[in-house]
Write a structure and sequence with these properties.
Number of strands: 2
Helix content: 40-55%
Largest sheet: 2 strands, antiparallel
Length: 98
């Protein structure tokens, strides 16, 4: 059986069709508390978690896929992904400048 689900990267699909994570990413409690105070939308939160998984420590440059690619993964419009990125940057959760 192959997994053709759009969110299959980092997941395995069980016989029941439920996807289980293959790995975990640790997020500091204080950072989670801060993010919760921001009242992020679902897409903003999804984008933040996606980016955190790609580069959790902020100690190195990480190539980020184009908004169109992330939008496809999150099943949203690319403009929504761009707005989410601006919000995350405004909140100092990520720095997208090069």
């Amino acid at each position: 059986m192959t997994n053709s689900a759009p969110h299959s990267e980092g997941y395995k699909t069980e016989a029941s069709g439920i996807q289980k994570p293959l790995q975990f990413v640790q997020i500091l409690k204080d950072l989670i508390r801060y993010a919760r105070t921001l009242k992020l939308t679902g897409t903003q939160y999804d984008r933040w978690l996606y980016l955190w998984k790609r580069g959790p420590y902020g100690d190195r440059w990480v190539d980020i896929p184009l908004p169109v690619e992330i939008a496809a993964l999150l099943s949203v419009d690319p403009r929504t992904v761009q707005r989410a990125a601006r919000r995350l940057e405004d909140c100092d959760l990520f720095d997208f400048s090069s």
